[in-house]
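Changelog note: in this version the structure field was regenerated for every chain. One regenerated record is shown below for reference.
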Amino acid sequence: MRSKLGTFILLILLPLPCFAVVIDKITAIVNDDVVTQNEITQVEKLNLGLLELPSYGSVLQDRINHHLILQQMRRQPPLDVPEDAIQSAITTIVNRQGGTDDLLLFLHGIGMNYADFEQEVREEVYINRFLSDRFRPFVNVSIEEAEKYYNDVYKPELEKQRLLAFHSSQNFIPLPARAH
């Protein structure tokens, strides 16, 4: 009797369709870290602007670099980053968004919770500190190199921007012709 009941239940449940739902797509795997499409989208929309790393024009490549640096940091002695530095960065971003409520609405809109936001800020502050402590002492720029850069790159670009701003801000008012 029991086996007939078990067989009957199995036959009833067997033909029911099963569905798979895609939760997120894997965009990249960086060693053992998985970078998802959702992570890329959230970081792109969040755009904290805290990292002092050069951007490579692709959010995916920037995120891969982010994960590579975090992995490198894990292999180094821990950094001493004061909690107030992280809180200061969070406060700056909260103020830039117009307050805590507006930030929370924005985060909800991009599918990120506050804990993930706080973790992202923490990671970026730690990355900046890591780069500053580990690499900046080895970068030495001579006065001659700084002057050359200023004269060859910075100054011409600044003059070009000023010239464009000057031309765009000029308002020409035609003067009446004078009678001779």
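Spot check on this record: The chain is about 60% helix and 5% strand. Strands lie at 26-30, 33-36.
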